[in-house]
Amino acid sequence: MHDILVLYYSQHGATRELARMIARGIDSVDGCRARLRTVPKVSTVCEATSPAVPDSGAPYVEKQDLQDCAGLALGSPTRFGNMAAAIKYFLDGTAPEWMQGTLAGKPACVFTSSSTQHGGQESTLLSMMIPLLHHGMLLLGLPFTEQALSHTRTGGTPYGASHVAGHDNSVALSEDEKQLAIAQGRRLAEAARKLAA
C-alpha cells in the first residue's frame, strides 16, 4: 500500500475541505491511501506552544510522514499571494530531510484557497512549489484535459486545485472545485504508483 501524504494548514476550514477531496481522489486509486496531516499555527508569542494533538481534524505531521510517503500533496490558504506562515515554518525545518534526499524523486502537487477570486492563488501555488523543487520532488499540475478546468467560474488552476471561499469563508466548494481536487489526488496517486513500480 502506497501512503500519499496530504499535508495542509487551514485556519477557517476551506483548505481542509480541499485536502479531503484530494484524499478522496487518492483513495480511489488501487494500492494507494491518503494520510491527512496538518501543521500547528505559528504563534507571535515566543512562549506559546500548541497542544500535542490538535483539537479537531488531522493529526500534526511528523518527519516520519515525509519518510513514509510515496507522494505529497501540499496545501495552504493564500496569504498575500504566498503560503501561510505555518506551512513555511514547517518547510523551513526540513533541512535534514533535504540533505538526506528523503523526498527526492517523489511526486508532489499543491493546492490553495483564498477569500477572493483574485487573491493570489496562482502565486501561492508557485511559492509552495519552490521548496518542493529544492527537495527534488516531481511536480504535477492539472492538465486542461480536466474539463472542469476550462469552464470553472470559481477556483481551479493548471498549477493545482484551488477554492474561492468568500470574504466570510462561507462559500462551500463548487462542483468544479471538487472535481478538480479529486482529479488532482487521483493523478498524484497514479504517478506515485507508477514511480514505485
Automatic annotation (TrEMBL):
It comes from the Bacteria. It holds the Pfam family FMN_red. GO terms for molecular function: NAD(P)H dehydrogenase (quinone) activity. Its cofactor is FMN. Keywords: Flavoprotein, FMN, Oxidoreductase. Residues 4-188 form the Flavodoxin-like domain. InterPro entries: Flavodoxin/NO_synth (IPR008254), Flavodoxin_CS (IPR001226), Flavoprotein-like_sf (IPR029039), Flavoprotein_WrbA-like (IPR010089), FMN_Rdtase-like_dom (IPR005025). PANTHER family: FLAVODOXIN-RELATED PROTEIN WRBA-RELATED (PTHR30546), FLAVOPROTEIN-LIKE PROTEIN YCP4-RELATED (PTHR30546:SF23). Belongs to the WrbA family. This is Flavoprotein WrbA. The gene is wrbA.
